Sequence to fold (206 residues):
Amino acid sequence: MTLRLAMLGPPASGKGTQASRLAERHDVPHLSTGDLLREAIAAATELGERARPFLERGELVPDDLVLEILSTRLDPTAGFVLDGFPRTVGQFEALEVPLELAVKLEIPQEESIRRITGRRVCPDGHVFHVDYDPPEEPGVCDLDGEPLHQREDDREEIVRTRWREYERLTEPLLVRLDGEGLLVRVDGTGDPDTVEQRVRRALDQG
Ligand code: AMP
Fold:
């Protein structure tokens, strides 16, 4: 059976970076519901238009919308690393393929704010940080030469709402996952290579 893992954690805990590394190493798809929603919004699809106000406010998108967008990409036979999904008990219960493991990346809120306010992304989702991981040429993606910008929902006041949503809706899910013996906690502070080592160690033990 291939890997069926969910990468969870508060805003800017490194979910995307770690999920992508893990997916590559295990040769399974990396599915980020945040990326899928942003793609739908950029393409101005009907679903994207319904999701847009929630992302703009930093609130979670209703479960039915997220499940709809994920179902277009999730191949139950292929294994997966889910990034930012499930985020509610309802989403977890609706998942047709059982999760093998959920990794929670833990970082303090101040660290999250520091990471987010310096974060810059390109239209294809490649991520840089003005201090911690600057591109060679400021404002330009090293990988595809596209211009970098700040995500709308990376503004500090929106990030605080995203944290409140995390505490209100995702923490109860983490309690549930823990109760089912599916949750592994990993210290998400430090550079991406250090965190990757911790994730690998946690998976070897889990
Ligand atoms: P992320 O890229 O994971 O930080 O997600 C960005 C935003 O997309 C969140 O603040 C939510 O508005 C929305 N989103 C992403 N994944 C989910 C999910 N599983 N459930 C509800 N909303 C989501």
